[in-house]
Amino acid sequence: MAFEIERKFLVMGNAWRDGLSGTPIAQGYMPVEQGIVRVRIAGEQAFLTIKGRGLMTRREFEYPIPLPDASELLEHFCGSRTVVKTRYEVPVGNHVFSVDIFHEENEGLVMAEVELSRESEELELPDWIGHEVTRDPRYHNSNLLLYPYREWHAEPPPA
């Protein structure tokens, strides 16, 4: 059984970005009762991912798929349920933080996530890491479709 264990944080400033280039990502979601099905195009690669429910630990299965198939899935099955961002991989100690700069309806949100091998794993936090949002479901990419970050100041989504 495959599990994903990750923590999410808000990012402060741009110190993490020095000399790094990012990968454009478009990912769409097909909600299912037990979790989500995600289609992701990251640069020239594409993946189909099935994720269970959960905030820090959840089942996850990810499979590479042909790029034309991913494009068609995004267009015909996800439609407007798409998150657009640029991802940067930032090594820190024994971990790699994925820092996402969100675009379009989620412009202004910069978030870092790091995958762990167990929930209690020790983690070195760099000084550009801000508030932890791991257990706040609003920050799940699939929820950012329903309650885009730009709208939070007008009316915060339910926590």
List keywords for this structure.
Hypothetical Protein Pfu-838710-001, single chain, mainly beta, eight-stranded antiparallel β-barrel
Describe the model.
The protein has 159 residues and is mainly beta. The protein has a single domain, classed as Hypothetical Protein Pfu-838710-001 (Beta Barrel), CATH 2.40.320. Helix content is 11%, strand content 45%. It has helices at 67-78, 141-146, and strands at residues 3-11, 23-32, 35-42, 45-52, 57-64, 82-92, 95-102, 110-115, 129-132. Strands 1-5-4-3-2-6-7-8 form an 8-stranded antiparallel beta barrel. Strand 4 (45-52) and strand 5 form a beta hairpin. The radius of gyration is 15 Å and the shape is globular. The two termini are 29 Å apart. The mean pLDDT is 91.
What is the number of E strands? 9
Please give the count of helices.
2
CATH class: Mainly Beta
Radius of gyration (CA) equals 15 Å
Would you tell me the structural class of the helices and strands?
mainly beta
Looking at CATH, the homologous superfamily is Hypothetical Protein Pfu-838710-001
Widest β-sheet, arrangement of strands: 1-5-4-3-2-6-7-8
Would you give the CATH topology? Hypothetical Protein Pfu-838710-001
Counted up, domains total 1
Order of helices and strands: EEEEEHEEEEH
The helical percent reads 10-25%
Which shape, going by the Cα principal axes? globular
> What fraction strand?
over 45%
Instruction: Give the low-confidence spans.
Output: none
The pLDDT mean sits at: 91
The rounded distance between the terminal residues' Cα atoms is: 29 Å
Report the major sheet: 8 strands, antiparallel, barrel
Based on the structure given, which CATH architecture is correct? Beta Barrel
